[in-house]
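Changelog-adjacent note: as of this version, every example in the card shows the full chain rather than a window. The one below runs 511 residues end to end.
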Amino acid sequence: MHAADLLSSRARLTPDRLALVELATGRRYTYAELNARANRAAHFLRHRLGVQKGDRVSLLAHNGLVYLDLFFGLGKLGAIFAPLNWRLTARELTYIVNDCEPAVLACGPEFTATLAEMRPALRVRHYLSVEGAAVPDALNYEAEVAAVSSAEPERPPLAEDDPYCLLYTSGTTGRPKGAVLPHRQILWNAINTVISWGLTEHDVSPVLTPLFHAGGLFAFLVPLLYAGGRLVLARTFDAEASLRAIVDEGCTVVLGVPTLFQVWMSVPYFAQADFSRVRFWINGGAAIPVPLVEAWRAAKGGVFRQGYGLTEAGVNCFSMTDEEAARKVGSVGKPIFHAEMRLVDPETGAAVPAGQPGELLIRGPHVCAGYWRNPAATAEVLRDGWFHTGDMARRDADGFYTIVGRFKDMLKSGGENVYAAEVEAVFRDHPAVADAALIGQPDEKWGEVGLLVVVCRPGQTAGEDELLAFCQGRLAKFKIPKRLVFAEALPYSPYGKVEKLKLRELYLPKP
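Full-length structure tokens:
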């Protein structure tokens, strides 16, 4: 089974159903119209630019229809979509482009200066200008696709393990790695999400996160199109505009990240927004503080869930019912339908009992094929069919999982393991703390001790002594940080994760 027919099959079944609303232009597209665009992209790429099965095509642009054109069009060709994170520097992007070696690179108008800085070091055959971007020696994408057929392109032979997407990890511990997402992963993530999250043709979901990210593409976009629902596509994130779109378009399932939910609550329109049509909200990308969930529920009610996923193993790995979401706040739920999960001791590989933390291992058809041209990294994470996530989780007696933190996001103090997420969660429970991030600081006596970076809520303050006293009885003595520093904000990745490498550069002494 492969994923090349996802859009064409849906367009065959419900051609005239509304599939997508583009907020930037106000245009509305049926499934037949979306599929015709993807077919035109496929014909143009194959016949004008010679793109063949296995070739990579990259895109550097804000959210727009071109993402869907290329994603679904390349799938029909057996080619590989490799979108680029526009938040990276020209130097970082140059490494990624030269690693994946795309045959074609398309660029939007906001990123022409970045591309100009990159081009002397790139090995790319063809450049495309999207939305009139001033890219020298580039073909005009919109003009070219308008001139070709909208019929279904001829398909090459496709297998479930053929690569479909190439998405690069953040590279916080070294060079970015390209996760190879095969056709089976795209298809089974959609199946798992529709079945486990209960998506239907009546659901409407906003796409507010960048489409260069697995969350933007696969949390709800592909699964909801598979189910026959409707998408509301935002070009970039605007807090009030996105809230109004959720209300005006009758959105029913809404994905956000912790910082996004926090920002939404600070918008004046939030108080009057009518969310009665939202079936559930789901947080992803990073764990959300329980007090924030409680504050949201107190203000607006509704069902609020915590999601978990990762690029390499599918962005939707767990699920729960509405009742369970209220009863098990902080839990990510039970494993999705077509998946296997294990918790093991990361040092011995032995299974850990309920209630004890262990490294989360995942096996199933929704797991990636490894890393692009990196067999060593692939062998490290894929062993005997199990993907080693590097995340620590705990399973309770009822079978519900809670993510404890990154196995590598841990410091060893006096021989004891201290997991950052556990410490951070305690500090976030303090009413004056908006967020907190723990890093390890070298120490002659203990090897490492905790350094906690704290961000207070607007208009509130808390002293170091007060916060440390708050930890007494909540954390073992060896887990309590030895140093606290206060900051205006934490550095976040595009998907809401704290970038601890930057914190180490800011607060730790240089060797």
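Structural remarks: Residues 31-48 form the longest helix (18 residues).
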